[in-house]
Amino acid sequence: MAPTQSAFARFADHCATCRTCCAVDDEGANLNLPCAEQGRLYEEYRHASRAAARGGDR
Fold first, then answer.
1. What is the distance between the alpha carbons of residues 42 and 40, in angstroms, rounded to a whole number?
2. Is residue 58 scored above 80 in pLDDT?
3. d(CA 24, CA 41)
4. Disulfide: which of 23, 39, 47, 56 matches 31 by Cβ 3.0-4.6 Å?
């Protein structure tokens, strides 16, 4: 798996299982609560994406 794909998979896995990221209101709408781990994983994914755009994802 490429670094970008791996970083995205870690980000997506976290967001799908984290109680904070999955918190919803009474109508089922996501509350979009802040989650430090989500932010860290998103930045890791963005960094991998930028590296891939520069040709570093081979």
1. 5
2. no
3. 21
4. 23
